[in-house]
Amino acid sequence: MEKQRIYITRSLDEAVIAPYANLFEIRMWEKEEEPVPREILLEEVKNADGLFCMLSDKIDDELLQHSSNLKVVSNLAVGYDNIDLDAAKKHGVIATNTPDVLTETTADLGFALLMATARRIVEANQYIKTNQWQNWAPYLLAGSDIHHKTIGIVGMGRIGEAIARRAKGFDMNILYHNRSRKPVAEKDLQATYVSFEQLIGEADFIVSVVPFTPETSKIFNEAAFEKMKQTAIFINISRGATVDEDALVEALRTNKIKAAGLDVFEVEPITNEHPLMQLDNAVCIPHIGSASEETRTEMIQLCMDNIAGVLNGTGAKTAIQ
Ligand code: 8YV
After folding, report:
1. Which GO terms describe its cellular component (predicted)?
2. Is residue 321 over pLDDT 90?
């Protein structure tokens, strides 16, 4: 019997893929750091039974129309704003993502970004390496305290809760806003549910972990930054499109808020010409929330398991719909 075909849109470690290579015919885009060009993807998907994709691949009606055998699209991310779920449903294609395996790693990074931004770690590193440390001064690179401050978590899903657990360890007061109340976070972590407006007005650290949807598009806009404290620090580990970047640049430039730590941007990759890159009070990193070696390996395995499950009839482990 002919093997079913899987197309993978990035070059991945052969060792992780090897266990599946006996069962399926696997083709892979050859580059690790460049997305597969759209025309090649449209061609490849024609014969694929399973597609292993990532955020840089747009899975829409046009692409799904090109496929006659496709049964599953497996996204290497927990977020799936790159996939048109209605189109997938229409074409009878199961969409899967990678929840749970990346929760703690992404929360670690969120907290690392918060700490780096509050305590000016990146500036301090630059300062010492460019030989500026000639003297000690009482307020040299003085940042903001983290312990006992108020953190406001926007989006209290799995990652939001994992951030709240870390915040509790720092004796922080925890506010959250979410579509629905989270009794466990309220009981176990003493997180207080508040409106979005109250959260952005009262929190010292505002952390966005909210998925990107039409409702969350640019929720962090001029009006939102206006309501924040002048000492507020904004952290975004969700999606860049939840933020009006022009408004954020303005708020940082005019010190309406103190600083921002950003793992995600409206257009990725962002270039060093972007005004955010000129600001000392913006710590910017290239969408590495879940990028630990251990977690990326688990994510890739889960993606492969999801495809294998659908293709061999046992079902996906983590289907989105
Ligand atoms: C992805 C992410 O791993 O899971 C998500 O939603 O944003 C990251 O963890 C990364 O974008 C690669 O697709």
Report:
1. cytosol
2. no
* Residue corresponding to tokens 């176990």: 188
Beta carbon of 99 within 6 Å of any ligand 1 atom: no
Contact yes or no for 155/238 (Cβ under 8 A): yes
Q: Is 296 a catalytic residue?
A: no
| Residues sharing a CB contact under 8 Å with residue 301, sequence separation 6 or more, in sequence order | 16
The DSSP code for 292 is -
- Cβ contact 9:41 at 8 Å: yes
Q: Is 302 in the pocket of ligand 1 (CB under 6 A)?
A: no
DSSP string of 102-129, one letter each residue: THHHHHHHHHHHHHHHHTTHHHHHHHHH
Which residue among 58, 80, 290 has the greatest number of ligand 1 atoms within 8 angstroms of its CB, and so is best to mutate?
290
Half-sphere exposure of 320 (CA within 13 A, CB side): 25
Give the chain's mean pLDDT.
97
Helices (H) and strands (E) in the chain, counts: 12, 12
Domains of the chain: 4-99+293-312 (3.40.50.720), 103-284 (3.40.50.720)
Q: Cα 99 vs. chain centroid, distance in angstroms?
A: 12
Mean pLDDT of 229-254: 98
Contact of 54 with 294, CB cutoff 8 Å: no
Please identify, by atom number, the ligand 1 atom nearest to the C-alpha of residue 97: 4
Catalytic residue among 161, 287, 296, 298, which? 287
